[in-house]
Each structure stands twice: as structure tokens, then as C-alpha cells.
Write a structure and sequence with these properties.
Number of domains: 1
CATH class: Mainly Beta
CATH topology: Neuraminidase
Shape: globular
Number of strands: 20
Distance between the termini: 21 Å
Largest sheet: 8 strands, mixed
Order of helices and strands: EEEEEEEEEEEEEEEEEHEEE
Strand content: 35-45%
Strand order of the largest sheet: 2-3-4-5-1-20-19-18
Length: 288
């Protein structure tokens, strides 16, 4: 299934997640709501992003836009966690009241010019920061994806202010998928399914499984499932496609969902259609 996405003006869907049976998303141009997808029974009808939980993030000095790139729901807490690429921080939002608070991780950020003292080996480049968020169990810990240059995983044992000092950094340089042209290996979302960690690789147009070493000192890509043939199909392709567009990944028992952020590019053959696309694929063998 592939449907266009409609929503607030200039909607640019980013991270996806499921919460209480609903498919939700954030938009990196909209800082005051978590959105819910509403579907029509009519074939080909657009999916609408409507506000599911509105909130007001506490202001941060000198920051006008938070650029939320990922969302994760913790059922036992009834809390959402949103990852801000601008601040390299997490916003915790109560799913019932909408009350919001920053964790205050203290990581390098675009808002601070990606500077940190002492300097850290990750999140050094503006617009290449946190793009994915997931939660691992046994033991419980949060995982953030650093998009690129360098790309890798940040594993946080606890969510608390100044937690970067306890974060473990795992660079992941090698991609199991060959990239075309000048595309760089990257990650744009994370998801845990059946205890396994998966990443959305936007420029590779693939989902990859990420596996830790036996010693726990490194992570690597082990398997991949490509959806390139679909997003490059003339029925779904966009004119400006030098780089990948897949921004959000959500996995359920029998399907995976991928949403594209087309940055207002128009569809091939239709200059009037600048809507993003949402795909539903049958669950691939990669997820067995």
C-alpha cells in the first residue's frame, strides 16, 4: 500500500511509532504536536495527519525550532519521547495531559554549533545529528541514532540530565548495502522488534538489522531488506531524488510502515503533487 499524506501546511513527516494501536508521527517543521494517521476506506485516498497529543515544549534560549526527528512511546510510563536534532536532546511528553519537559542530556547540538568541551567523537556536524530513537531491554536502555559523518549509535543507560557522560558511542562505518552515486551511509530512524534493533537507512533505501558483538564493544549491520525498487517506481518517485527520503519506520506483527519526507519535491509526472508518501509493506523475512 502507498498513499499520499496530508496534514498541516508544509507537513514533513519524520519519525514513526505505534501507541495503543495507532500509527503516530512527528513533523520536523511542527513543534507542538504528535500526529495520528487517519485512513480512508477509499482506495488511494490520502492518509491524514491530525493532532493526537498537543504540547508546549519549554523554550530554550536562542532556539526557534526544535526539529523533532524521532518519536518513541513507553506504555508503562504513558509517556512519549521526542528526539530534537537541533538540541540533541529528548523531550518527554505525557500522553494524557501533554505536559512536556526536556531531559537535558547535554550532548553536542546544532544550536550550540555542535561544540562540546571536552570534544566528543559524535554529533559534530550540523544537520547530521540525532535521527532515531528506540528502547532496548534486558537491561533497559535508550538508543539514539547519529545520522552521519560519523554515523553510529549512542546508548544511554539512564535518561537524566547531563547523561552524555554515561553514554556509550558505537560508530558504524560499514554498510551492508552498496550506495549509489555520492550518497553517504546514514540512519534516519530506529525500531526494536522481537528484541532486535533495526535501522532505517535513508540513502541506502533499506532497513538493516544492527547486531552487537559478543563482547558488547561494537555494533554492526548484519542483514538488510531493500525497498529501493518501490520508491524508485515511476508511480511513487519524486523529481529531486539525489538523496534518499525515507524518514520514519514502524514495525508491527504483519507489516512495516515507512514514511517519506520529500522536502516539498514534486512527484514524477505531477508538478502539482508535493505530498509525502506513506508505505505499508508485508513484513519481510528480515524480521523473522
Amino acid at each position: 500500500m502507498a498513499v499520499p499524506v496530508e496534514g498541516p501546511p508544509r507537513v514533513e513527516p519524520s519519525g514513526l511509532c505505534f501507541a495503543e494501536g495507532m500509527l503516530l508521527a512527528v513533523s520536523d517543521k511542527h513543534d507542538t504536536a504528535i500526529y495520528r494517521f487517519e485512513f480512508s476506506e477509499s482506495v488511494g485516498a490520502p492518509a491524514r495527519m491530525v493532532p493526537h497529543r498537543e504540547f508546549r515544549a519549554p523554550p530554550r534560549k536562542g532556539v526557534r525550532r526544535f526539529d523533532f526527528e524521532a518519536v518513541h512511546y513507553v506504555p508503562k510510563e504513558k509517556k512519549f519521547y521526542l528526539a530534537s536534532e537541533m538540541l540533541s536532546d529528548l523531550l518527554r511528553v505525557d500522553s494524557e495531559s501533554g505536559a512536556a519537559e526536556w531531559i537535558g542530556l547535554g550532548l553536542p547540538s546544532a544550536a550550540a554549533g555542535a561544540r562540546q568541551n571536552p570534544p566528543l567523537p559524535y554529533l559534530r556536524k550540523p544537520n547530521a545529528g540525532i535521527e532515531g530513537l528506540a528502547e532496548l531491554e534486558h537491561p533497559s536502555r535508550f538508543v539514539l541514532a547519529a545520522e552521519r559523518e560519523p554515523r553510529g549509535l549512542l546508548v544511554l543507560p539512564q535518561l537524566e540530565a547531563g547523561n552524555y557522560a554515561k553514554a556509550r558511542w558505537f560508530p558504524i562505518e560499514h554498510s551492508v548495502v552498496k550506495l549509489s552515486g555520492t550518497r553517504l551511509a546514514d540512519y534516519s530512524d530506529l525500531e526494536v522488534y522481537n528484541g532486535k534493533l533495526f535501522a532505517l537507512s535513508r540513502n541506502a533505501e533499506a532497513i538493516v538489522e544492527l547486531t552487537p558483538s559478543k563482547t558488547g564493544k561494537s555494533w554492526r549491520e548484519t542483514r538488510a531488506w531493500s525497498f529501493s525498487h518501490t520508491v524508485r517506481d515511476p508511480r511513487f518517485a519524486y523529481m529531486h531524488s539525489a538523496f534518499g527520503m525515507a524518514e520514519g519506520l514502524a514495525i508491527e506483527r504483519d507489516a512495516i510502515w515507512i514514511v517519506l519526507d520529500n522536502n516539498r519535491s514534486w512527484r514524477v509526472g505531477s508538478e502539482r503533487d508535493r505530498r509525502p508518501l506513506l508505505f505499508r509493506f508485508a513484513r519481510p523475512l528480515l524480521l523473522e
